[in-house]
């Protein structure tokens, strides 16, 4: 089968950063589904693995942690899907990724694809939806449903127009009654955040504290710090309300001093969407359930795809282009590649 892999860590503009390869077709067993990949999207994690985790055994590693496709075979322990089902999923860091014509994925981390979306539109959603869902509802433990929030119950989403931000804004808007403040630094990204449901947009290229003040907002109860946490962290203890919560998903280059969070009893919550699959946690199936919930919300017209651009067919040249765009830090929503022609 056709696949795109890498063997060494090279810049995205190097012709050999990603390479077109042929691999044997995988054989299904146990809880695995054999999925024919129809479309994939690209995330910052693809670029980070390419830059920092080249394979050491000389064998090409296949990236890709977001896909939609069709189930072609099921393992003997599978109960959730049947051959022919259309699915979407992120997969796991521990196995070969979705930039291949066929992929094995544990059915407990796969969801039913929204029927109202085509494969490209659906491929934009899984990794970021699982991340946003787990961050908001499992880690920050934001209650779902319209309830007794008071007027000061604000959620600040830093990096609102990115892949995770675009779906986090929508989930928070649909499933909570929080006042949602997203950050964006450009007119296009600010408009994107508003379109997806942010009540306010502030500029993360300025002081978040000053920007909130200018918007008439004294403090926020929750912060979803999705990117450049180290740049904004100094403001968080100031802007988070007493007993508020701070959620992080990005990578830090240095230790974080948590002492400023003490006097207000601010709690810090990590989200990694690979935790459940890497450690095969007892609640691994929560990712199947979250993806199905997202799928139902899409089909009910409550969530939109976050797809911003279809780059072209799935091959090394197009994937390198997508990696470079992601590395610019300026992408809106999600970049998708479709088909293997
Ligand atoms: N832990 C996990 O499970 C997990 C899951 C997914 C992603 N991640 C990580 O989370 C981060 C974000 O992922 P993503 O897919 O949302 O990224 P992304 O789509 O590449 O984010 C792009 C967005 O970042 C915004 N941005 C750029 N500079 C910023 C700054 N200084 N402050 C605030 N926002 C800024 C940009 O807005 P403007 O253009 O308006 O400046 C743009 O909309 C990445 O580091 C990724 O690896 C972690």
Which term fits the overall shape?
A: globular
Looking at CATH, which topology of the largest domain would you report?
Quinone Oxidoreductase, Chain A, domain 1
Q: pLDDT under 50 segments (min length 5)?
A: none
Overall mean pLDDT stands at: 96
Bound molecules: NADP nicotinamide-adenine-dinucleotide phosphate
> How many angstroms separate the termini?
12 Å
Major sheet summary line? 7 strands, mixed
Strand content: 15-25%
- The total count of strands amounts to 16
Which class best fits the helix and strand makeup?
Answer: alpha/beta
Proper CATH architecture of the largest domain: Alpha-Beta Complex
Structurally, the number of domains stands at 2
CATH homologous superfamily (4th level) name of the largest domain? Medium-chain alcohol dehydrogenases, catalytic domain
Radius of gyration: 20 Å
What is the count of DSSP helices, taking H or I runs of 4+ residues?
10
At the first level of CATH, the class of the largest domain is Alpha Beta
- Please give the share of residues in helix: 25-40%
**SSE arrangement, N to C:** EEEHEEEEEHHEHEHEHEHEEHHEHE
């Amino acid at each position: 089968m056709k696949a795109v892999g890498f063997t060494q860590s090279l810049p995205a503009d190097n012709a050999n950063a990603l390479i077109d390869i042929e691999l044997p077709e995988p054989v299904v067993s146990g809880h695995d589904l054999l999925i024919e990949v129809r479309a994939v999207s690209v995330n910052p994690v693809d670029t980070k693995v390419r830059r920092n985790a080249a394979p050491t055994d000389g064998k090409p590693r296949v990236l890709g942690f977001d896909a939609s496709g069709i189930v072609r075979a099921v393992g003997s322990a599978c109960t959730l899907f049947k051959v022919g089902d259309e699915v979407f999923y992120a997969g796991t860091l521990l196995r070969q990724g979705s930039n291949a014509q066929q992929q094995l994925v544990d059915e407990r981390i796969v969801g039913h694809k929204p029927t109202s979306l085509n494969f490209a539109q659906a491929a934009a959603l899984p990794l970021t939806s699982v991340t946003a869902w787990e961050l908001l509802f499992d880690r920050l433990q934001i209650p779902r449903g319209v309830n007794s929030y008071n007027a000061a119950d604000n959620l600040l989403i830093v990096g609102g127009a990115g892949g995770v931000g675009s779906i986090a804004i929508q989930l928070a808007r649909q499933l909570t009654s929080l006042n949602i403040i997203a950050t964006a630094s450009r007119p296009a990204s600010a408009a994107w955040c508003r379109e997806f449901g942010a009540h306010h947009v502030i500029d993360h290229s300025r002081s978040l504290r000053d920007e909130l003040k200018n918007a008439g907002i004294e403090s926020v109860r929750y912060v979803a710090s999705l990117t450049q946490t180290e740049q904004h962290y100094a403001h968080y203890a100031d802007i988070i309300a007493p007993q508020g919560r701070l959620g992080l998903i990005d990578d830090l280059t240095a230790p974080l001093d948590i002492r400023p969070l003490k006097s207000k009893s601010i709690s810090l919550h990590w989200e990694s969407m690979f935790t459940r699959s890497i450690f095969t946690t007892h609640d691994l199936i929560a990712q199947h359930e979250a993806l199905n919930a997202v799928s139902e919300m899409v089909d009910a017209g409550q969530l939109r795809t976050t797809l911003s651009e279809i780059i072209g067919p799935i091959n090394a040249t197009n994937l390198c282009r997508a990696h470079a765009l992601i590395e610019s830090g300026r992408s809106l929503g999600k970049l998708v590649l479709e088909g293997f022609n």
